[in-house]
Specification:
Blueprint (H helix, E strand, L loop, with lengths): L8 E3 L2 H4 L4 H18 L6 H19 L2 H16 L15 H10 L22 H31 L2 H10 L3 E3 H9 L5 H44 L1
Length: 237
């Protein structure tokens, strides 16, 4: 999955859902009710008002009508979900995460490809000399920046998560495979028991990377101070 695919979903066609169990059909209708509640939050314009009335009518028919009415309702709900990015401000699912998704598309912090440098593993900077040392430090900076960016995205997701977020995720689970949900679950702070060890390993690696770069930063700082002192000596002559 690429970050450019964030807003693409795998939605089961309504013709397939009609043959599945009642629970799946009811979950899609629950999604429709959630979308309906979301649309009602904002002051509706004429088009949104029509959408609200039409969706409410379809849900009512589905719950009290024939199998055909239910299938039609499911089809309407899934089509509306596919067009959710065009819904009015204040009504879109996961709207608070949209700035995070846009930033992810641009920065790609989880990419294994360095943003500025791409080279096979090499020696420690202290074992190198001349220009090779500085190139290696620059490469380490690239990896450290990715570590910091990933951590910041995690904090941004945690800060944007709410009870409503959990409601959307629960309703969509088993019905729609959404890259939005995958990203939220990947970055949020709640971890399943089988994910704890992997998280510990990931955090340990990040800390080691940051500590290694901290040592490199001190070396850079020393070089800058030496150059500054040399320049001051020259200006006083």
């Amino acid at each position: 999955m690429t970050n450019s695919d964030i807003h693409q979903d795998t939605v089961k066609p309504s013709s397939y859902l009609a043959t599945e169990n009642l629970e799946t059909q009811e979950r899609v209708i629950s999604l429709g009710k959630k979308l309906l509640d979301s649309l009602k939050k904002d002051e509706a314009d004429e088009i949104t008002s029509w959408m609200i009335n039409y969706l409410a009518e379809q849900i009512t028919l589905a719950e009290s009508g024939s199998e055909k009415a239910k299938n039609n309702c499911i089809d309407v709900i899934l089509k509306l979900w596919e067009k959710r990015a065009t819904l009015p401000n204040g009504t879109r699912p996961f709207e608070s995460f949209e700035p995070i998704f846009k930033a992810l598309e641009s920065l790609s912090p989880e990419s294994n490809i360095p943003r500025y440098y791409h080279q096979a593993d090499s020696d420690e900077p202290d074992d190198l000399s001349g220009s090779e040392k500085w190139v290696e430090i620059a490469k380490r900076l690239d990896g450290t920046a990715r570590t910091l960016i990933t951590f910041m995205f995690e904090q941004a997701v945690v800060g944007s998560c709410s009870e409503e977020t959990k409601e959307w995720i629960n309703i969509l689970s088993g019905v729609i495979t959404s890259n939005e949900i995958e990203l939220i679950l990947r970055y949020r702070d709640e971890k399943k028991p089988d994910e704890v060890e992997a998280r510990i390993e990931s955090l340990t690696k990040r800390i080691n990377n940051l500590e290694a770069f901290e040592r490199l930063s001190k070396s850079i700082g020393q070089n800058l101070k030496e150059e500054l002192n040399n320049l001051r000596c020259l200006s006083n002559q």
